[in-house]
Amino acid sequence: MADDLKDTLSTAATMQRRSLLKGTAGILATGIFPAVHAADPIVLRYLGTAVNQDKAIAEKFEKDTGIKIQYVAVTTDDVTKRAVTAPNSFDLIDSEYFSLKNIVPTGNLKGIDVKRIKNADKITTLFTKGEVGGKKVGDQGTAPKKVIYLEGEKSKKFSATPTQFMSLIPTVYNADTLGIRPDLIKRPISSWAELLNPEFKGKAAILNIPSIGIMDAAMVVEAMGIYKYPDKGNMTKKEIDLTIKTLIEAKKQGQFRSLWKDFNESVNLMASGEVVIQSMWSPAVTAVRTKGIACNFQPLKEGYRAWASGFGLPATLSGKKLDGAYEFINWFLDGWAGAYLNRQGYYSAVLDTAKAKMEAYEWAYWMEGKPATQDIKSPNGDVLAKKGESRDGGSYEQRMGGIACWNAVMDENAYMVQKWNEFVAA
Amino acid sequence: MSAPSAASSLPAASAPGRSIAAWWQALPLTAVFAVFFLIPLALVLMVSFWDYNQYEMLPGFTLKNYVAIFDGCLSRNEAGDMCVTVKTYLSTFKFSVLVWLLTLVIGFTVSYFLAFHVRSSGVQVVLFVLCTIPFWTSNVIRMIAWVPLLGRNGLVNDALATMGLVDKPIEWLLFSDFSVVLAFVHLFTTFMIVPIFNSMMRIDRSLIEAASDSGATAWQTLWNVIIPLCRTGIIIGSIFVITIVMGDFVTIGVMGGQQIASVGKIIQVQTSYLQFPLAAANAVVLLSLVLMIIWALTRMVDIRKEL
């Protein structure tokens, strides 16, 4: 009996201590202990794909501002999944524009107040107006200009006209095309149709991310002259059937060596020579080249499939962390990060500030499409291009002006995924 | 485990305290089992009857997910193909059977060698530990190690070309059914070796002497004495291997070049497109099938009794 009593007492004491601890943690979390909080650096949990999460960027930012960036690296699909299912698990999201159609209606993102973004009015017109150098570019699919503005800070709807609130502030973007091994193909490649050319039987690969892979397939279908889509980024069921049928036929003929899903897979396929032609991402081509293997990010006459990603803020973010997130976005657009990304073959959202942080010869090579006047190095110091070489696809205006469609989420997404599984199973 | 017979011989009412203690003892495991298995499973079952749209799940009750899975499976389509679900399951079954057969033969042979040919128990232990060495690295690494070996310009093809055996690289070594089965066998043979070796070590050696004294040939001893007495190990190993292969999507993805169907892969694609209810329905179908296989296997042997 006495033992029981003692037990009860000690349990009660433990309980008290525990709840006290919990309470303290709670208070700390809300920031009511200002002195303690100020001593603690702000840590921003940054959710995104590994591609954009560069250690150097986080280090430089912490050095400049004292705010820590904690990267949470997941795949493109998982970014969306987390944004929809676990919006409290991050403080800053780096998502692609096409995912917004799935995220914004959940109300898990808050509009970014452009008044708090110093360089907001300098963001490239590609995003705000869908123009490059004053010329309209293709807007099939989820073009950023369709989803970049929200009706209000808490809105679940996109606005067709500019407002004070942006859904995402663009970070990086690019236009994708086929990657080829010129040393193994030994002839010029100029059309998307080559991906299904039987000449490359057993040596071709395509992306196994259904929403992007089907866009590449659509580019091929159009290039082969089978069908012209009104909008490749929003197909009807019939159009999906046709696209998948084309893929299945090619697969049954043994066209594909492999499908790939992540960056490294595509690099390995290409570098090992398993594959000589595949849909590819620009930095992956760069990665193959830094191994000393010839690889082209081949411009094609039908144009490019573009993508863009940007920073968004979760709806629940507030206080110091919200300020920290704004500070990060402002810092990101301020040039250093832009220059860093431009040197990897991406494009940055605010070109002026990035230009200020790049050498003139670098800018000429990366952005103006001019031959390199000296060796071009990656941020880690690997040589990417020798003196005299020029960038695949030419200048920024040539490349981004050649956009045919944007990565997209279709209205018939569910059906598309089902058909894609059919392709994989065929 | 001699307790059941003893306990059942006692009238339950005569030892109430003891039976309560037994309940308490069983509680922790039951709780863990409930929290980490039963409740999630119930949730999966529940969600499989929900509806969904692009970005959210809509609680309710609908059979549409199950209908979607078996859509078009009753007849062949115009091209004469089976529906995706049937095709996927056939492909999954094919791998299960192939891998099961190979791991069984290899696992049995290795265990037989360890148990009956190696005399010293010290050497036995060393060799047995040797069998588990592959498990010191992760599954994925063991799998990926095959890629540079089997590739078009890989070591195997290089060697064959240098010896003049082939003039063009062999393509089917990698990203094919062959490479998938090879990786599976490499990964999971140990799951066969361990239980089979375990049951072999329990065989009373005098039984084998008796068989040989009665004039049985080596084959007769193997077939009529050793294999029946290893049945438990074989069944346990088979359950391991078959359930893993049925649910796998990583090995089939990496070694099959992402273009071989597997049920697990379909579930993974669906969850990444937020089609959780559909994925849940698929998981329920897969789970029921695997449970049926396990049920059938356990019909062949009373595992509780044998252990």
UniProtKB/TrEMBL annotation, chain A:
Bias type Basic and acidic residues, positions: 384-394
Annotated organism of origin: Rhodoferax saidenbachensis
Organism superkingdom: Bacteria
Region annotation (Disordered) ranges: 377-397
Gene3D superfamilies, per the entry: Periplasmic binding protein-like II
Keyword Cell inner membrane attributed: no
Keyword line: Signal
Pfam families documented for this protein: SBP_bac_8
Lineage, highest ranks first: Bacteria, Pseudomonadati, Pseudomonadota, Betaproteobacteria, Burkholderiales
Annotated protein name in UniProt: ABC transporter substrate-binding protein
InterPro entries per the UniProt record, alphabetical: SBP, TAT_signal
From TrEMBL, chain B:
InterPro entries, A to Z: MetI-like (IPR000515), MetI-like_sf (IPR035906)
Segments crossing the lipid bilayer: 26-50, 97-118, 125-147, 172-197, 234-256, 276-297
Gene Ontology, cellular component aspect: plasma membrane
Subcellular location(s) of the protein: Cell membrane
Keywords annotated in UniProt: Cell membrane, Membrane, Transmembrane, Transmembrane helix, Transport
Biological process, per Gene Ontology: transmembrane transport
Major site of localization recorded for this protein: membrane
Keyword Protein biosynthesis in annotation: no
Domain ABC transmembrane type-1: residue ranges: 89-297
Membrane topology: Multi-pass membrane protein
Transmembrane helix found in the keyword field: yes
Family: Belongs to the binding-protein-dependent transport system permease family. CysTW subfamily.
Entry-linked PANTHER family: INNER MEMBRANE ABC TRANSPORTER PERMEASE PROTEIN YDCU-RELATED, INNER MEMBRANE ABC TRANSPORTER PERMEASE PROTEIN YDCU-RELATED-RELATED
Protein name per its UniProtKB record: ABC transporter permease
